[in-house]
Amino acid sequence: MTKRVLVIMGSVRAGRHCPAIAQWVSGVGQERTDLEIEIIDLAEWLLPMDDEPGIPALGLYEQHHSKAWGQKVAQAHGFVFVTPQYNWGYPAALKNAIDHCYLEWKGKPLLIVTYGGHGGGKCAIQLRQVADGLKMKPVSPMPAITLSNAVIRENAPLDA
After folding, report:
1. Cα separation of 155 and 80, whole Å?
2. Taking the model in full, what pTM does it have?
């Protein structure tokens, strides 16, 4: 049985670098493993904040989007979070997507790949704490890609 890994893009901002970095991470995984890898763009998932009456730990979702998201997460054997570091943390869209589920994350491996002007180490530490709380299995190392000022502020190519 082929194991399925979701590469979840943590940023939904316009002009984001996340799609290119997630594609690169996915490509590395596809070249070096026999995993089935799917990129998930959170911008394509309507996950309104706090619209479920129950807590995710019970797994009793009422909203269609919560059921669909929970099923998507449950079907994966592992995850890669690819996310920028925003103000020493990680984006709200990623936190919201994580918090829409609970049991679906439990016991599954997680690779955290961060990027930004400082690489994203503080963001990765926060995500690791959340993963520990969800009883996930975060792996090391947690790659942190430092982007140049030209890439961040002037939209220079990532490969420059």
Report:
1. 25
2. 0.95
